[in-house]
Amino acid sequence: MAPIPTPPAEPQDNPDGYVGLDAAHAERLARRRGWTTVRSLPPGAIITMEYRPGRLNFEVQDGRVSRAWRG
To answer: Could you tell me the superkingdom of the organism this chain comes from (predicted)?
Structure first.
């Protein structure tokens, strides 16, 4: 039987620290801190809720991050 893959470790980074930042700056900062995927979404966007290690989600309103969460 094949071994169960181990998901990659996520950055030890608090998503709340991105709230209020300019969206483009927040994305660059997140990538520098090790997030492999950064997803910017408009408020109320319909998204799938699967958890993806290494992904950081931003809700962006008026060019600023209004909410940030893992996965």
So the answer is: Bacteria
Please answer whether residues 62 and 16 qualify as being in contact, where contact means their C-beta atoms are separated by less than 8 angstroms: no
HSE-CB of 41 using CA atoms within 13 angstroms: 17
Q: 22-67, pLDDT tens digit by residue?
A: 999 999 999 999 999 999 999 999 998 899 999 999 999 999 999 9
Q: Tell me, what's the pLDDT at 7?
A: 75
